[in-house]
Structures are given as C-alpha cells and as structure tokens.
Amino acid sequence: MTVDVEPGGHAEPGGIAALPPLRRTERAGHTGDQVRDLLEEAILAGVLAPGTHLNAEALAKQLGVSHIPVREALRSLHAAGWIDTRPHLGAFVRARTEQELADLFELRLQLESHAAVLAAERRTSAQLDQLDGILSRQRAAVDPFALGEINAVFHVAVAECAQNQFLIDFVRTLSIRTRFYFATVAPQRRDDSLREHGEMVDAIRRRDAATAGRIAHDHVFHTRADVLRALRGTPATAPG
C-alpha cells in the first residue's frame, strides 16, 4: 500500500480515512484476502496506529467493498495477532509491548548477525548488485512508510545472500514483525540505518564475514535501543 505525500514531505498516520479504496483490478482474487493485505500493510506502516478502532462498516465504506470481506479480513488479522477484539466494542489495532520487542530483537540479534556472516561468505555478484540497489532506494527515500518497507527488504536480501532457505524464511517473518516497531523510529533512524546498512554491504562485498556479522549485530542492537526509547517516550541520547 502506498500513501500519497507531497514531494520531500512526510506522510502521517491518518486512520481509516487514509486507506485507499480497492481498485477493481485488486478485487480480481479473493476480496477478503485483498482487504486483509491492505489492512496489514497499513498497520505495519503506522497508517493504522495502535488503538485505532477498526469499525467494519466504516472500513467497508472507505474501501468500497461489502461487509463480508471486511469481517473475514478482521478475523484473519486477529488470528495473526495484529488486532485485538473487545466485547461490545469491536476490533482495535493491538498495542506495541516492551516484552514482544525484547523477544523479537533477541532472535534478530542472533539470526541476522549469522545471516550477515554467511552472506559475506556466499553472496553472488548479482545479489551484491541487489543490495546496492536497495541502498539506492533507501538513500532516496524520505517517507517513513517507505523507509520501513525498504528496511525490511534490505534485511531479507542479506539473508538471501546466505543461501539458506530456512534462515531466509525466519528473517522474512521477523522483518514483518519488526516493521510494526520500526515505524516508531523510521524518520529518526534514517541516516543511521543508511550508514549501518552501507557498512554492512561493504563488509559483505569484501567477504569480511567477521566484520559483517559484528556490524549486523550492532545495527540490530541500536535499533532495539531506539525503539525501546520511543516506546517509553524518552529522548535519544547523543553518542558519547
């Protein structure tokens, strides 16, 4: 899902009213799946912020579909853990929690540092070109929603360089979950993330596995610290 912004500007979460209606071409498949994908993307991007009330009638009207696919989508999102349902109140985008952040990044620290090590050892020239292309996209991006998506794509691409399908699948799953948290710091971390990603790619390019693994570990560690500060509402500290 894309959110229109002025050139050089930043999109802001806008709730249900910010969701684009489904085009007819998007309804070619199962409409419930299309609605689910659109809502999940909006949650990950922060368009539908935690606590947003997902009223089925309002969603159906905004998306230009019937109530049935909307209710199917909400049930699917609830099963996936993206929304909570409250008796007599309806569905709401779930909250971010410090415990889930800790659990998520505990795994990322281990898996993604190892993925970077293997990437440096196994990457192909074509995969290196792909990483360079992602960095170019990140360098040009200013919209926080785009930054979150590109960040996830980058980490999956590094895992793909590791040539291990199980590792790729795990990192892809973690990257989706991470977007939900990265949305809280995407603009603030833009320059740091770009620099750290660039350093990681340089190490992978040199086939310096130890350095690539260390950079990946530190990158995930710094992101976790920034997200935790955002969740607690405390300002970032200047590096000393």
Total domain modules = 2
Strand element count: 3
CATH second-level architecture of the largest domain: Up-down Bundle
Number of helices: 9
What is the SS-derived class?
Answer: mainly alpha
- Report the sheet with the most strands, covering strand number, pairing sense and barrel closure: 3 strands, antiparallel
Strand content: under 5%
> CATH-wise, what's the superfamily of the largest domain?
GntR ligand-binding domain-like
Structural write-up:
Residues 1-12 have low confidence and may be disordered. The longest helix has 25 residues, at 98-122. The chain has 240 residues and is mainly alpha-helical. The chain has a three-stranded antiparallel beta sheet with strand order 1-3-2. Helix content is 64%, strand content 4%. Helix 1 (31-45) packs across helix 3, helix 2 (56-63) crosses helix 3 and helix 4 (98-122) packs across helix 6 (144-161).
Brief account:
The protein has helices at residues 31-45, 56-63, 67-79, 98-122, 125-140, 144-161, 165-182, 190-205, 209-232, and strands spanning 53-54, 83-86, 90-93. The protein is mostly helical and 240 residues long.
What topology emerges from the helices and strands here?
Blueprint: H1 31-45, E1 53-54, H2 56-63, H3 67-79, E2 83-86, E3 90-93, H4 98-122, H5 125-140, H6 144-161, H7 165-182, H8 190-205, H9 209-232
Antiparallel strand pairs: 1-3, 2-3
Provide key terms for this protein.
240 residues; mainly alpha; Arc Repressor Mutant, subunit A; Four Helix Bundle (Hemerythrin (Met), subunit A); 2 domains; 9 helices; 64% helix; 4% strand
